[in-house]
Amino acid sequence: MSTRPTKDQLAAAHGTTIPDVIAPDLDVLFCGINPGLYSGVLQQHFARPGNRFWPALHAGGFTPRLYLPSEQERLLDLRLGITNVVARTTARADELTDDELREGGKILVAKVLEYRPEWLAVVGITAYRTAFGFPKARVGPQDQPIGDTHVWVLPNPSGLNAHWTPAALGEEFGRLRAASLDRRNR
């Protein structure tokens, strides 16, 4: 779809899901809070114009160039993937209940144990705190792994999270990239 989704298409996408971009033994499995309506219509993660995930991924050194959401499957060739804490699409993440986030956290743990990525990178500190019950967690590496998978919390790349500048997002993604390379080279 090359044009912007219509209001009717966006409304119809509410509550739908989009497939994960996932495979066993990835270097990093990125985990959004939940897909937005724009992503639901396009069936692409972080698809809304203005979402800074794809630029931060590139600025952090994960991709050789700026990928478009339509190229999400190419991430698998780079040993990267994408999933979400909660699968259902909403207009805004604040439509999710704490119970949904906690249940999504349980589903995510099962997914991580099945697919065994080296790192799980949750993009959204508040969602991570609620889903996993760590109210004092901060952005960066976490002390609590999931099985053998290390956990890193990244800032939410939504344009609504304006206090994280594009440069700061790129730096934080770059910290994770450096840590993932360090672990891979051990």
From TrEMBL:
Spans traversing the lipid bilayer: none
A single Pfam family it belongs to is: UDG
Task: Give the source lineage, highest ranks first.
Answer: Bacteria, Bacillati, Actinomycetota, Actinomycetes, Pseudonocardiales
Its protein name is G/U mismatch-specific DNA glycosylase
Entry keyword annotation includes DNA damage: yes
Q: Which residues form a coiled coil?
A: none
Q: Give the top-rank taxon of the lineage listed in the UniProt record for this protein.
A: Bacteria
Any one Gene Ontology MF annotation carried by this entry is:
pyrimidine-specific mismatch base pair DNA N-glycosylase activity
Q: Which UniProt keywords apply?
A: DNA damage, DNA repair, Hydrolase
Give all residue intervals belonging to the Uracil-DNA glycosylase-like domain: 19-182
Tell me what organism the protein belongs to. Amycolatopsis eburnea
Q: What SMART domains does the annotation carry?
A: UDG (SM00986), UreE_C (SM00987)
A single GO BP term for this record reads: base-excision repair, AP site formation
